[in-house]
Amino acid sequence: MTQTEMKLNGIGTYYNASFQFIDENINQGLGNRVAIYHQDEEITYNQLQRNVNKFGNVLKELGVESEQRLLMVCNDTPEFISTFFGAVKIGAVPIPVNTIMQPGDYEYFLNNSRARVLVIHEEHWSEICHLRSRFPYLKEVIIISNHHIVSEKGVKDYHFLMNDASEYLESAYTTVNDSAFWLYTSGSTGEPKGVIHLQKSMENCFNSYAKNILDIQSDDITFSASKLFFAYGLGNGMYFPMGAGASTVLMSDRSTPENVFETIEQYKPTIFFGVPTLYGAMINLAEETGKIFDLSSIRICVSAGEALPSEYVRKWKKLFNLDILDGIGSTEVNHIFLSNKIGEIQPGSTGKVVPGYEAKIVNELGETLPPNEPGDLLIKGESIASNYWNLHEVNKQRFLGEWFHTGDKYYTDEKGYFWYYGRSDDMIKVSGIWVSPIEIESSILHHQSVLEVAVVPEKSKDNLIKPKAFIVLKDGIEPSENLANEMKQFVKENLAPYKYPRIIEFIDELPKTATGKIQRFKLTE
């Protein structure tokens, strides 16, 4: 009997994503296939299943129950996957978050989600442990380390707990309508929003995108430079390969061009996932050094996170004889819903609707627009999140029945290709991550020399979007290049480093309305 055939009266049809993506590979006879390549490790599906079961039992021993939440501040290591699916298997809700945030951000994540457990790599815990008394909902901290952590009240060693845990675990009785995991994204106010995904969200993305667009097979090896804590990376590096019984390459280090090229040459992946800024940096490294990098194992490359410049598509093809499939997804939809396809690439376009989704461009009245008229992009599909956590008013604005309001402006051409036109709000996407201009402005305003500031998107020569800050200085302060660099460093020290303004322009006054509201559109013009 399959998991979908099991049913209890009053509860519904059984479905658990951990069973689908881990246990089913064992049932299909793939237990000895390598699931994860990481540094010198090769972890088979049999080993992965044991680790998933062990961590699920660890949580049960700690008293974690169905629907309770745990926050994951985890690098791209095998422990990430065991933690994620171990939690899902017992009906708990894992919440992976960005590992390059500031301590105050983690305080927000923990308190907003009311997570009972924190699973965290040791280097990240050292940055926030001094705030422990400010996490009122947190009961247990589990630290992932390469050496034994001395246990103290509420702080335990990951591997020590795993050593004593049972390898056998039955899946919790969950259904397709139960929460499986959360992801955090940023909204127009700058406050991160908890996005609640249901048990079948990952399988829906796998069936729609990984099967139809990538034609993923069990002999594929995926490598995602985008990390697992992103919705994009979570599919690329975890549930896409797990759904196909394929293999994933995990890289804990930063995704620099050098590290990425080295990893590709070492593990020889067949599918590579990146973001436009990384593709640009890799192209620049190859052109500047003249070095020949071996990408011959790759059959297809994927880009998402922000619009991919057509020049990158052309240069990548010339350098490596490889196509890049550009697409767009979102945290709320869980993965890519518009994409170019193999043999149907339109450089500069986001492509067409991925099978399994519907899309429409509407005006402010909700009326569908004809080709070449820009409007708001709405998406319909089974992988869309159920809602945002604790944001009733925002839910009514963005989740419109079966449709989700993406916040992106698009238009279509006569052939059905979608073309990006901008954002419906002031958010800026930097290296594939949404950034609130208000958050950057607030940070800059703490600098002693700043009177006023406005942050807007600015296109670079490669057509990539970067944050630009227009700053009015206090009386007596003279603008200079050194002062601009000092302010960039100031933001890096107070926010996640990727949020700093790449360009700073000092001006005498900001354009404002009669009521004193800054007119950002004039600065953009």
Describe this structure in words.
The protein has 525 residues and is α/β, with parallel strands linked by helices. The protein has 3 domains: 3-28 and 43-175, 3-Layer(aba) Sandwich (Rossmann fold); 199-381 and 390-423, Rossmann fold (3-Layer(aba) Sandwich), CATH 3.40.50; 436-524, ANL, C-terminal domain (GMP Synthetase, Chain A, domain 3, 2-Layer Sandwich), CATH 3.30.300.30. The chain has a 9-stranded mixed sheet with strand order 4-3-13-12-14-15-16-17-18, sandwiched between helices. α8 (231-244) links the parallel β12 and β13. α10 (276-289) packs across α11. The longest helix has 17 residues, at 45-61. It is globular.
Summarize the structure.
The protein is α/β, with parallel strands linked by helices and 525 residues long.
What's the number of extended β-strand segments? 29
Tell me the structural class. Answer: alpha/beta
CATH homologous group name of the largest domain: ANL, N-terminal domain
CATH class of the largest domain: Alpha Beta
Q: What is the fold named in CATH at topology level of the largest domain?
A: Rossmann fold
What portion of residues belong to β-strands? 25-35%
The best one-word shape is globular
Radius of gyration: 23 Å
How many discrete domains? 3
Second CATH tier, the architecture of the largest domain: 3-Layer(aba) Sandwich
Profile the largest sheet.
9 strands, mixed
Going across the biggest sheet, name each strand in turn: 4-3-13-12-14-15-16-17-18
Count of DSSP-assigned helices = 15
Q: In terms of per-residue confidence, which ranges show pLDDT below 50 for 5 or more consecutive residues?
A: none
The termini sit apart by 62 Å
Query: Quick check: average pLDDT?
Result: 92
Helix content: 25-40%
